[in-house]
Amino acid sequence: MSHLLSTAYRPRVALLAAPNMPLWAPSQLARATRAISPSEQQYVMRFRPADQKQARCIARHLVVQAADMLGYPGKFLALERDAHGRPFLAGTDLDLSISHTPGLTVCAISLGCRVGVDVELRRELQFEEIAPALSGPEKTRVQSGNLPWSLLSCWTVKEAVLKGDGRGFGPGLEAQDLFSPEPVLAGVRWHVSRHVFEHGATTYLCALATDVSDAVVVSRLGSIPH
Ligand SMILES: CC(C)(COP(=O)(O)OP(=O)(O)OC[C@H]1O[C@@H](n2cnc3c(N)ncnc32)[C@H](O)[C@@H]1OP(=O)(O)O)[C@@H](O)C(=O)NCCC(=O)NCCS
Hints:
226 residues; CATH 3.90.470.20; four-stranded mixed beta sheet; 11 strands; globular; binds coenzyme A
């Protein structure tokens, strides 16, 4: 009983992933697009490549599933975007973050805390690929070999924190060190968990950032009916 009480009031996060390959037939994509809200249909249609449209449809279905897991009726929630493009679920106390990488889409919905998520195909990430997006302290960490995890993992953590914050890659980031187990951005300490999703022979690395230390995270790799 005491365990139930202590988890009932802790911040919770549903982290869902689904493969976004193989490519659906046009009729399947049309059906999946029709199943989402009109404003989201407009958003999805802005993406020209079919795989990007499909990934957006999958994300929107994951949003519904993740909200359901937290006890909210996902299909009745309105997904909107703030001035920075950060998605939110209007009229709820849920927070939301989405990420795509070739082969996988992830969605995190939280109750009682803010959330950011990033997923990447596991690969050997080269410093040069991301150097322009790194701050001075992050470059120093890479060059001195003082990283808490692999460079790719650190990158997912940085992206997850930035998406939790919601203002993207903006001014002021050049002094920040987000390659840290407990990164601080704009006075907020972020708490990071790292997740691995396997699909077929492919591995994906995912980072989840919350602005509380005690969130209960439930993660699941599933699929979307289409
Ligand atoms: C938010 C941001 C950080 C994510 O971009 P990304 O890594 O390219 O893409 P991801 O697939 O991980 O994330 C895409 C999702 O981010 C979400 N998103 C968009 N703007 C956001 C913001 N300001 N805050 C949080 N999330 C945001 C969207 O939900 C989007 O998914 P959707 O189109 O299905 O709704 C992006 O807006 C940004 O600022 N990109 C800059 C990237 C950059 O400068 N990279 C340099 C590399 S060298």
